[in-house]
């Protein structure tokens, strides 16, 4: 299966270490190391984008640092460091291009990463399991060869983003875990990005952003002056501002925070508004009440006819 454009956590298939850009540094030459995966660490997030005109060939860019995964000097020598560097041009750009294809290790659904310039593979040094284990470029068997001795060159890609088209499909085809059939989306859906890539944040980060990046705690609704929609718009803006501050070196992606507007089911003359995100398994929509910093799990708590959805 060909890898698609997206934001990924790249884990070694043999030990629980992820590719980590050291300390999140944006300095050229920053080492890329193995580090224990804690499910969502900015140093572990990579934007994988296809290279035009080349099959199964990608650049791999750190979200936190904005630099590209680079094989030092494009060298064919074993144990050549893999580092983060700003985007290069000419022949040096090939040092930052990676052929990523499925390995023959079918049990893990893993991939191998072959540097376009050198023909060597991204390798977790000796398969070490300690934080800080180096990741080098090393020789290895090809994609179609299953070699038990080179398992430390096998990597799994855990996607943490969705495309505009994928999000639209989820929203348009999902009843949002609600028992009321009238809440299926068949009225209005708008996406600012036509062909964008959206990072899906863990729910715990939403709660943290609400607490630390908005002034909504303790704020009371004032009909028309500061109404339901104002709470939801404030939260959406806070997520965007938090993302711009956190990832001030990289671009080419958005951070997902949806906005739902509609009419109250209990009082149809009144408007209602909620935020929403996509579930961790990317199967459905999860609503968020920006008045009290809570995700809504019970269907009967959604007092809205779901007329308009904006991303």
From TrEMBL:
Q: Boundaries of each Ricin B lectin domain copy?
A: 43-135
Query: From which source organism is this entry?
Result: Armillaria borealis
Q: Residue limits of the Agglutinin C-terminal domain? A: 198-295
Q: Which domain of life is it from?
A: Eukaryota
**Pfam families linked to this entry:** Agglutinin_C (PF18021), RicinB_lectin_2 (PF14200)
Signal sequence bounds? none
Q: What is this protein called?
A: Ricin B lectin domain-containing protein
Which SUPFAM superfamilies does the record cross-reference, listed alphabetically?
Answer: Cysteine proteinases (SSF54001), Ricin B-like lectins (SSF50370)
């Amino acid at each position: 299966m060909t890898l698609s454009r997206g934001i990924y956590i790249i884990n070694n298939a043999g030990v629980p270490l992820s590719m980590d850009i050291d300390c999140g540094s944006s300095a050229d030459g920053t080492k890329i190391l193995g580090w224990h995966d804690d499910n969502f660490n900015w140093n572990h997030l990579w934007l994988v984008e296809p290279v035009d005109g080349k099959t199964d060939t990608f650049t791999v860019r750190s979200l936190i640092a904005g630099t590209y995964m680079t094989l030092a000097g494009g060298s064919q020598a074993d144990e050549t460091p893999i580092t983060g560097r700003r985007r290069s041009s000419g022949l040096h750009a090939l040092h930052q291009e990676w052929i990523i294809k499925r390995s023959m290790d079918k049990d893990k659904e893993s991939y191998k990463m072959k540097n376009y310039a050198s023909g060597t593979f991204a390798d977790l040094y000796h398969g070490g399991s300690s934080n800080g284990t180096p990741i080098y470029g090393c020789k290895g068997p090809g994609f179609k060869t299953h070699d038990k001795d080179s398992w430390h060159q096998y990597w799994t890609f855990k996607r943490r983003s969705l495309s505009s088209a994928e999000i639209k499909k989820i929203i348009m085809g999902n009843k949002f875990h609600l028992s009321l059939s009238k809440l299926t989306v068949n009225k209005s859906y708008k996406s600012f990005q036509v062909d964008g890539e959206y990072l899906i944040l863990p729910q715990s980060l939403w709660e943290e952003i609400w607490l630390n990046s908005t002034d909504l705690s303790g704020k009371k609704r004032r009909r028309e002056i500061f109404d339901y929609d104002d709470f939801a718009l404030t939260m959406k803006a806070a997520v965007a501002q938090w993302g711009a501050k956190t990832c001030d070196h990289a671009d080419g992606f958005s951070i997902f925070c949806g906005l739902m507007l509609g009419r109250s089911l209990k009082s149809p003359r009144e408007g209602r508004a909620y935020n929403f995100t996509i579930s961790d398994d990317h199967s459905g929509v999860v609503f968020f009440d920006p008045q009290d910093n809570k995700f809504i799990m019970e269907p009967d708590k959604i007092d809205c006819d779901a007329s308009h959805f904006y991303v």
